[in-house]
Amino acid sequence: MSATATAVQTPLTSLPAWKALQAHYEKIRSQHLRGLFQSDPARGTRLTAEAEGIYLDYSKHRITDETVRLLLELAEQSGLRERIEAMFAGEKINVSEKRAVLHAALRAPKGVVIKVDGENVVPGVHEVLDRMSDFSNRVRSGAWKGFTGKRIRNVINIGIGGSDLGPVMAYEALRHYSQRDMTFRFVSNVDGTDFAEATHDLDPEETLFIISSKTFTTLETMTNAQTARDWSLKKLKDDKAVAKHFVAVSTNAKEVAKFGIDTANMFGFWDWVGGRYSMDSAIGLSTMLAIGPENFRAMLAGFHAIDEHFRTTAFAKNLPVLMGLLSVWYTDFFGAETVAVLPYEQYLKRFPAYLQQLTMESNGKHVTLSGDRVNYATGPIFWGEPGTNGQHSFYQLIHQGTRLIPCDFIGFAKALNPLGEHHDLLMANVFAQGEALAFGKTPEEVKAEGTPDWLVPHRVFEGDRPSSTFLLEELTPAALGKLVALYEHSVFTQGVIWQIDSFDQWGVELGKVLAKKIVGELEGSGPAKGSHDSSTTTLIERYRKQRK
Ligand code: G6Q
Question: Which residues line ligand 1 (CB under 6 A)?
Fold first, then answer.
């Protein structure tokens, strides 16, 4: 293992920049954004950054130039530069799983050399991409036929977590570019309803299943895959049909073959691709089938552009670095618990859900790389919904509640579906929300509107509520790749500052193990067999009685 991955680090809270930020916070905490803008009208143009067609306005944050300077120092003192180099060089920076972290290799152009254990992984990436392209073209054109000779009209991706959230999000985000005479569905939950609803109106003769599972052992996915097999064969009545209606995306050829899928129809990836970082690997096969290989490659180019930006741009102008540092600033100094992601783009409706896994599974950690308990807060809770819908539900709390919730607003200058005034109305709302959150409405302003005294407190907006605004030209496949890569690298930046392993996920293990144990105890109706606490035992017994 490399020196960079395991080097003993100065504890975060002992770094000079951290201490300076603590002192600085005391000075800045009571400064209102109204005052900051009044005394420095240029901040709205200065505290911005732009790269690869993405404009980030971070002026509506509770920061000054001094805050930014100290946060950048924190990044330097945390060794972010070396850690970025280590990641892109294929070092095993996922220390608890002893793995390299190379989602950046998935979008590296041909000719780039990225080595893992001495082997260049880029040619293998392109070999899989070429096979995916060939397969997608055949299905999309109708050349690939189902077992009874019918054209494939429906594609169902079966996968969960990292093998589902990216594909669902990308399909929804890029639906505008999708082949409209095909239906795409996604089944993830072990709850049978998910499968039943996804298939109820489909014909097995026209339906292709993609079983997406890195390990090919995940309980939910294997259960759904088996159900899909039964559903198909009930109509197709011949085991040989499996080869025409099932393909696999996995790293586990042995299990794929055991399931009955022809390994010629298996698309592989590698242990250096984490599940939540895999939507641009073969896990994105459903995306490629929907939008076509060219658009998929455009998306990869978008990812790559931000990889290069992150790797080579000075931190002061580096979008993911700035995003990551701002998150640390609110999480650790203001004590903010959550971040709201608010895309003003209906196609991005699953983007917050996708980011929940990316951010929370990555940075929801309570020990450092060396296993010590952290004494500061790590990964915030991510949540959100598209605007303007959220404005009519939870924005009330962001505007007038008692919590500080930094917001990420995402908007596009051009509409993909221009209809009358819709887009201007949408964008007017995103700009208005950032403005209202930052500047609010004072009691004097409320009174001046003729509001009776008793009602004034209810109608006051304190303001001083921070937000970032991301403005892009249009939601294209490349733009989506860029947006996702921004958040990926922001997550990494935060993880480096917090000295945690952003690439493992041990926290999902315990529940899985216990579920396997309990499932065998649900048969019968007498007292529960397993040794559990009194609460779990009672719940199991009650279930056994009621299920009859
Ligand atoms: C992601 C996690 C997790 C994983 C799923 C599915 O980073 O590791 O969400 O993607 O548990 O795993 P398989 O792809 O192995 O079925």
Answer: 160-163, 213-215, 218, 221, 274-276, 361, 505
Q: How confident is the model at residue 511 (pLDDT cuts 50, 70, 90)?
A: confident
Q: Among 97, 188, 210, 215, which is best to mutate for testing ligand 1, by the most ligand atoms less than 8 A from CB?
A: 215
Residue of the nearest CA to atom 1 in ligand 1? 275
Q: Which amino acid is at 166?
A: G
The pLDDT tens digits for 59-75 are 999 999 999 999 999 99
Where residue 273 falls (left for φ over 0; alpha for ψ -120 to 50; beta otherwise) is beta
Which sign, positive or negative, has the C-alpha torsion 468, 472, 474, 475? Answer: negative
State how far the Cα of 193 lies from the Cα of 446, in Å rounded to an integer. 51
Among 103, 158, 160, 281, residue to substitute to test ligand 1 (most atoms within 8 Å of Cβ): 160
Answer for the pair 473, 413: CB distance below 8 angstroms, yes or no. yes
Q: What is the pLDDT of residues 367-425, one digit of tens each?
A: 999 999 999 999 999 999 999 999 999 999 999 999 999 999 999 999 999 999 999 99
Q: Is the overall model pTM greater than 0.70, yes or no?
A: yes
**Cβ neighbours of 430 (radius 10 Å):** 24
The alpha-helical segments, DSSP class H, found in 349-503 are 351-356, 362-363, 395-400, 422-439, 443-448, 456-459, 477-498
